[in-house]
Each structure stands twice: as C-alpha cells, then as structure tokens.
Amino acid sequence: MYLRSGASLVSNPTDCTTVQLAEPATSNAYFEKGLEECEWLGRTPIVAVAVDGLTFYLAGVPTHDSIQVRSFRQNYHTPERPVRDKNGETIDDGEGKKKMIPGINMDNGYYQMHEYQAPAWAQHLNHIPSHIVKLTSLNTPIHRWSLPGVPDGFQVFIKRDDLTGAELSGSKVRILQFLFAEALRNNARHVVTGGCLQSNHCRAVALTCRQLGLTPHIVVARVSKV
Question: Is pLDDT at 194 greater than 70 in this prediction?
Fold first, then answer.
C-alpha cells in the first residue's frame, strides 16, 4: 500500500511511504457463532434482544452473550441519579437542588402513535402531518466540524443524527416516523420500498415494520431474489 507524500500526489512509488497491511482475518469459533446469531448480515452485525416483551435490534453486536447485550439488559431501566464530583459528593445546581442525571426508559412511547405538533416556524405550511410514530430520540446535537481548507469567515457545522441512540440509520427515521404514522392511520398491513443491496433505508423500513406488526416487502436493485 502506498501513501501520498505531503499534499501532492507522487508518480514514483519509491517516493511514497510503504505501509504493511494486516494479514487477512481467519475464522474461529467466536466468529462463526456471530454469523449464526446475526439477524441481518451486512456491513455491521445485528442481534435481536427481547426485553419485557419488546424486541430490540442492537447494531454492532457480534453475539447474544456479548458485553454490549449484558450492559443493555442491565441498563434497560436506569433510575434518575445525582451527579457526583470526583470525591463522590453530590453537585448542587446553584439553586439549592441536586444536579441529576436523567434515567433511561427504553419503552417511553417508542413505536407508538402520538399527535404531532409542528414547530412555530412550520405552522404556515400546508399538509402538516397530524400524527407521528416515535422511532427514536431525535433531539441530536449540532457540532462544529473542523475541516482543512475552509475559507476565512466560514464555519462548518454537522447535525449528529448518528447519535439518535437507535439502529434505524440516523436521519432516515425523520421521514419514516411520519410515513409509518400515515400507514397505521390507514390500516395498512404491508409496506413496499426499494433500494440497493446494502440500503440503510431498506434496513430501517424492515426493522420498523417488524416492530409495528407490518409486513415489509423490499425491492433490491439488480437482485432477482434475496
């Protein structure tokens, strides 16, 4: 493997830095167990975890006995707790109250229909949806992005929809929450969509359909049968 020298491309490989690539991974019992338990083969392993009658699909988890699964089960219901300093003392919020870390409640209205209230800036729009299906937490942060070559006087910010806290492919759930609400209000039983072989949209639609009791039908480009 050859790397660029400085900022310009080089034509002579002898002027490049040579990097030794890692040896190809070899199969083992743990790897094969992960393939057997994986719910969705693709770019990331996904396993299904059942808790309190609900099924959660955890992305990036190789097997059911992984530490991620154990941690998920342990923290499924985490009560509110005070913030403490390095000495273990509780921290005051400046108004005589303890600072608290919000608890975790994984089934707090998820995959349920809710009335939708459009924000003030969108009130003038036509055809505002009346309902929404809560699929994940969408109050994601906006971070400044330090990129090389940005002209003076400009700043680049990125909306971190990879931090929704769910496996449903970031920003794609923003439109799906309205589409699935409409489908449920119209008593739909099947959902048809399409995409490429590794489409995150198709994956999100399929997972949401199963959670809502709908049957997904995925049309995959250039694939005759899956």
Answer: yes
Distance CA 85, CA 77 (A): 24
Is residue 139 a contact partner of residue 127, using CB atoms and an 8 Å limit? Answer: no
Mode of pairing for the β-strands spanning 190-195 and 156-159: unpaired
C-alpha 112/C-alpha 189 separation (Å) is: 16
Q: Which residues of 208-224 are buried (b: 16+ CB within 10 A; e: fewer)?
A: bbebbebebebeeeeee
| Token code pair at residue 56 | 């959660």
80: helix, strand or coil: coil
Place of tokens 């036509």: 126
Enter the CATH code of domain 109-226.
Answer: 3.40.50
Average pLDDT value for the chain: 75
Task: Give, rounded to a whole angstrom, the gap between the first and last alpha carbons of the chain.
Answer: 35
Per residue in 108-151, pLDDT tens?
Answer: 677 888 899 888 999 999 989 999 998 877 778 888 888 888 88
Q: 204 with 176: CB under 8 angstroms?
A: yes
- How far is C-alpha 196 from the chain's CA centre? 19
- Amino acid letter at 189? R
Which residues are paired to 165 by β-bridges?
none
